[in-house]
TrEMBL record:
Record-linked InterPro entries: Mur-like_cat_sf, Mur_ligase_C, Mur_ligase_C_dom_sf, Mur_ligase_cen, Mur_ligase_N, MurCDEF_CellWall_CoF430Synth, MurE/MurF_N, UDP-N-AcMur_synth
Location of the Mur ligase N-terminal catalytic domain: 16-81
Protein name as it appears in the record: UDP-N-acetylmuramoyl-tripeptide--D-alanyl-D-alanine ligase
Residues that hold ATP according to the record: 97-103
Keywords: ATP-binding, Cell cycle, Cell division, Cell shape, Cell wall biogenesis/degradation, Cytoplasm, Ligase, Nucleotide-binding, Peptidoglycan synthesis
Native species: Arenibacter antarcticus
Length: 424
């Protein structure tokens, strides 16, 4: 079956499923394979649960006429998504960066949805599987699609751009993330800039943070661009009014009070303002969208308890975002401050150095207590409290006084530090 023929079938059954636990009637089941599972083995179950067809690559599971045999299921899914993206008329905004991708994506979506029929990446499904699924969620009515692109190795963004073919692009920042795969900070910059490379080569449009020296230098000779800046000049001026605890900003004398914690979220909000303004969303609607956005999924959330307050930012962490979180936490007004910091993953050979630097930074700050959790932090040389595992910390949690405190919880996803909320 050709991609065009499969696309004709997809137009009849426009729901894709890759998990038999989430089968919906008349969907197309793609039998993807992973390190610990083989979707081909579940094809018959998918059909039994209501899938119209199952796309498989293992002939031994081709037990009915509802099985479509292909050479490679993942490649077939990706090529179908590419075909569908070209078939639809929606404008695509590509989004990548080291930190803040998902929050920025959700803010842009909230703003553009005020005027346009908009779809966006769900959650952080931003990889070689998630991007195709996002593209296949575009409908004939969709006007703008915001596609988040993640990567931990070179050429991944370049590949995703070939699928999504973005008309516009925005890079949140370049930070110390996934150093294990990228090798160095320069490797991060080169890899994330693959979005720029695609946009430049295809005469597409770039949104950018004019105050980010790396972005500004890389876009110096580009004419199809639009930037924002916290300083007067040729770019859209956006002023930060404060961040204690929530970020507030001002655009054309209109104040916007977000519900996002952290000065670092100023640029995320600013990007949404810039892009909304470019697409002629009224500024009053931009204000409503940003002020009504409430963060979830352990990202920049404030949780008010009876006698203390938690700043929960435990979705993920890398040295750049950890430093930003600590600096923001230092600025908050509070009688007492306690920080729980979990290991940062995927740093490769830089892990020892980066964890020591964060431990040193935290030790210099005026916090009442700092607790380091995880094998990497446990190896650091510091007088701060250290625990080799979350379970070790949990055994001691009853001895920690939280009365009248503001508590920061920050760590990589694998640390699952949100478990602390219930324990505290």
């Amino acid at each position: 079956m050709t991609t065009e023929q499969l696309h004709t079938l997809f137009l009849r059954y426009p729901v894709i499923c890759t998990d038999t636990r989430k089968i919906t009637p008349n969907c197309l089941f793609f039998a993807l394979k992973g390190d610990n599972f083989d979707g081909n083995a579940y094809a018959a179950d998918a059909i039994k649960k209501g899938a119209s067809y199952a796309i498989i690559e293992d002939r031994q599971f081709a037990s009915s006429e509802k099985n479509i045999l292909v050479a490679d299921v993942l490649s077939t899914l990706q090529q179908l998504a590419k075909f569908h993206r070209e078939y639809c008329n929606a404008k695509v905004i590509g989004l990548t960066g080291s930190n803040g991708k998902t929050t920025t994506k959700e803010l842009i979506t909230a703003v553009l949805s005020k005027k346009y029929k908009t779809i966006a990446t769900k959650g952080n499904l931003n990889n070689h599987i998630g991007v195709p699924l996002t593209l296949l969620s575009i409908t004939p009515e969709t006007e703008i699609a915001i596609v988040e692109m993640g990567a931990n190795h070179a050429q991944e963004i370049a590949f995703l751009c070939q699928l999504a073919k973005p008309d516009y692009g925005y890079i949140t920042n370049f930070g110390k993330a996934h150093l294990e795969g990228f090798g160095s900070e320069e490797g991060v910059i080169m890899a994330k800039s693959e979005l720029y490379d695609y946009l430049f080569a295809n005469n597409k449009f770039v949104f950018f943070n004019a105050d980010d020296t790396i972005q500004a230098s890389r876009l110096n000779l580009v004419t199809s661009k639009l930037g924002f800046s916290a300083h007067p000049g040729p770019h859209l001026p956006i002023k930060i009014l404060g961040a204690d605890p929530y970020v507030s900003l001002e655009v054309r004398e209109l104040p916007i009070e977000s519900k996002l914690v952290g000065r670092y979220n100023f640029t995320n909000c600013s990007a949404a303002v810039l892009i909304g303004d470019y697409f002629k969303v009224p500024l009053t609607d931009i204000k409503i969208a940003l002020e009504n956005y409430i963060p979830q999924n352990n990202r920049s959330q404030i949780i008010q308890k009876t006698s203390f307050k938690i700043v929960l930012d435990a979705y993920n962490a890398n040295p750049t975002s950890m430093k930003a979180a600590l600096e923001n936490f230092q600025e908050l007004k509070s009688a007492r401050k306690i920080a729980f910091l979990g290991d940062m993953f995927e740093l490769g050979n830089a892990a020892e150095k980066e964890h020591q630097e964060i431990a040193n930074l935290a030790a210099k700050m005026d916090f009442d207590q700092v607790f380091l959790i995880g094998e990497n932090f446990y190896k650091t040389t510091t007088d701060l409290h250290k625990y080799k595992s979350f379970d070790q910390l949990a055994k001691s949690i009853g001895n920690i006084s939280t009365e009248e405190a503001t508590i920061l919880i920050k760590g990589s996803r694998g640390m699952a530090l949100e478990r602390l909320v219930a324990l505290l």
